[in-house]
Write a structure and sequence with these properties.
- This protein is an alpha/beta fold.
- The chain is built from 15 helices and 22 strands.
- α14 links the parallel β19 and β20.
- The longest helix is centred in the N-terminal third of the chain and has 21 residues.
Length: about 500
């Protein structure tokens, strides 16, 4: 069987790397299966891609924003047409179940339609002047060339969060996808090409962080870096960009929590915890990692959670009966296993799971048992550090105030949720929880693209993706004053 070799997309052409080397993309459910081979690019390839983006930017900026939006609309239409094929390929390269990869593509579809509409808005403000015969307004201007660095857990959705808003605002882009999931980005770039995006407006370079990511971040003609990934890598991005006086946006980790109050619908809360903790095999920045349960219902809820967790079916994400797919690679599985060992050593009680799953066909992939820890104290490492796997910790609380304090006792602040039938408690939680996203009677995952996405504290650097807020990082504000008085007028100066 011949393995397809995929190329970089630079200046509207599919080209091989200067290195003439490739790397393999492996199916995490069947690690002997190569999904494809991709360019092992070098800083020279980054240089070519940035040069193409620079050359294309002036003409793209001058293209009327509604016309830019029309191209993005066509991309969204192509995503709809190719949704099933894209989802199946994504399951093969990333591992999550087919229903979730369909959702990944749908999120890109939603973002495409949304950003296309923004091409006819891109709103600024008009405000009154303090002087007669003078008009004041603000407009958005593109920042220039955007370096977009994306992770492996949402191989089309997260690139869409960056590409669609950046492009509709008049920027050009160089995209560096995660090396674990480059195929989805290649497919995505081909749809932009088919939709008629001019050459050089979007460029794709695959390869390592050291050989592609770092040169992209440091390139003097890259005007902005938009990064989604680990907190450790985000710190590197931030330090390099700060030294270059270059703006950057960071979307990083989370240690998300669901509060289950004593008046909660426990069956509904159970569904939310199972979905939040084990959807995408726990490999979401919004995954439910902590469940803070009122002491009055802890025993009952724990029993329900263990029964449901033990019934989950692990397997290839393409199989209809699979509930939980594999982890992305062996390094991630080893990390999850190490945290389970840390939890046991800290005194947490392992209630179920806690080890790699190697029975039968599962030994072919990077599978890990869905894991629940009880008797977890708030300062344990498994309650404080992002694990990024199917591991959830149960923490007891005494009342709502105690629960909110436990949620906020984290260096992250991405997503939170509360299950309660009391509307007063719900609004107290909305006000008190220090997270960028809060759900009421729903899980910590499931954000919609028409609202800002992002978090507080160590989750990011204050910027947001999705919604109209996504345009803020990809545009510069310009204030415009039009004086039609025919004479020199001096603001703030009395004659």
């Amino acid at each position: 069987m011949t393995t397809t070799i995929h190329k970089n997309f630079i200046a509207g052409k599919w080209v091989a790397s200067k290195s003439r080397k490739t790397f393999a993309n492996i199916n995490p459910a069947r690690k002997g299966e190569v999904v494809g081979r991709f360019q092992q690019s070098t800083p020279d390839d980054v240089e070519r891609a940035v040069a193409a983006a620079v050359a294309a930017q002036a003409a793209w900026k001058k293209t009327p924003a509604p016309k830019r939006g029309e191209i993005l609309f066509r991309v969204a239409e192509l995503l709809v047409k190719n949704k099933e094929a894209l989802a199946r390929d994504m399951t093969c390269e990333m591992g999550k179940v087919l229903g979730e990869t369909r959702g990944d593509v749908q999120e890109a579809i939603d973002m495409g339609y949304y950003a296309a509409g923004e091409g006819r808005r891109l709103m600024g403000e008009t405000v009154p002047s303090e002087l007669k015969d003078k008009f004041c307004m603000s407009v958005r201007m593109p920042v220039g060339v955007v370096g977009a660095i994306t992770p492996w857990n949402f191989p089309i959705a997260i690139p869409s969060w960056k590409l669609f808003p950046a492009l509709v605002a008049g920027n050009t882009v160089v995209l560096k996808p995660a090396s674990d999931t480059p195929l989805s980005s290649v497919h995505f770039a081909k749809l932009f090409e088919k939709a008629g995006l001019p050459p050089g407006v979007l460029n794709l370079v695959t390869g390592s962080g050291a050989e592609v990511g770092q040169p992209l971040i440091d390139h003097p003609q890259v005007n902005l870096v938009s990064f989604t990934g680990s907190t450790d890598t985000g710190r590197v991005v931030a330090s390099h960009c700060a030294g270059l006086m270059k703006p950057y946006s960071l979307e990083m980790g989370g240690k998300n929590a669901i509060i289950v109050m004593d008046d909660a619908d426990l069956e509904l809360a159970l569904e939310g915890v199972i979905w939040g903790a084990f959807g995408t095999t726990g490999q979401r920045c919004t995954a439910t990692s902590r469940v803070i349960v009122h002491k009055k219902v802890m025993k009952k809820f724990t029993a329900l959670l263990l029964e449901k967790t033990r019934a989950l079916q692990l397997g290839d994400g393409l199989l209809p009966k699979t509930d939980v797919g594999p982890l992305i690679n062996e390094a991630q599985r080893s990390k999850v296993a190490s945290y389970c060992e840390i939890g046991r050593n800290e005194g947490a009680r392992l209630l179920t799971g806690g080890a790699p799953e190697i029975k039968g066909a599962l030994k072919q992939g990077f599978f890990f048992q869905p894991t629940v820890f009880g008797d977890v104290s708030p300062k344990m490492r498994i309650a404080q550090e992002e694990i990024f796997g199917p591991v959830v910790s149960l923490i007891v609380c005494n009342d709502l105030e105690h629960a909110i304090g436990l949620v906020n006792d984290s260096s992250f602040g991405l997503s939170s949720a509360i299950y309660t039938r009391d509307v007063n408690r719900a609004f107290q939680a909305i006000e008190g929880l220090d997270t960028g996203i809060t759900y009421i009677n729903a899980s910590t995952i499931g954000a919609e693209i028409q609202l800002p996405f992002g978090g507080t504290k160590g989750t990011g650097n204050g910027h947001r993706e999705a919604g109209t807020a996504a345009l803020d990082i990809f545009t510069e504000w310009k204030s415009v004053y039009v004086d039609y008085s025919g004479k020199l007028q001096k603001a703030q100066i009395e004659d």
